[in-house]
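Progress report, Aim 2. The chain analyzed during this reporting quarter is listed below.
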Amino acid sequence: MLRIRHTLLANCRLEDVRRVCSKSQALGQCRRWLGEHLPNAELKEVASTSEAARMATCEPGTAAIAYAGAADLYGLKILAQSIEDSPNNFTRFFVLSKTFGDHSGHDKTSIMCSIKDEVGALYGILLPFKHHGINLTKIESFPSKQKPWTYWFFIDFEGHCADKPVTQALEEVKTKCSEMKVLGSFPKAK
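Predicted structure tokens for the chain:
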């Protein structure tokens, strides 16, 4: 996990900013600051913070939300630092492999699942973890892009996918899901 600090960059003064560009996540993570300091600025979503910095370089009155290092790369001035609304703003990165990680004895496993649209469905997928003594460390939902009103759940829990309690719990969870994907097991962060 990496601590994210957003910076406002431009070739103009703060009071001259008319538009702020960045990717949607960055704009959302800085909404309160933007509302207080640039309430009349247009917010424009772009594909990346790099694209936002390029736009700030060429378009007068345009600022970018990006990382501070982009100021040097694109010849921009730093107008404000640490403009994110939450000081606990972290991004998680994945290392992808075709095989599961080795069993370290201090592992976590990540899965994604989509549940059936019925009463108690979420409870049904969580219960096997309780029955097998598996501690959940994170659960997060996000909307499916394929079907409206359908959600995916991203779940992290302690244990390796090769551990017997984990394999048993996952077999039970799979019967309760429309779809389930084991993303992999990895050593816990120290």
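The mean pLDDT is 92. The first helix runs from residue 24 to 29. These observations will guide the mutagenesis work planned for the next reporting period.
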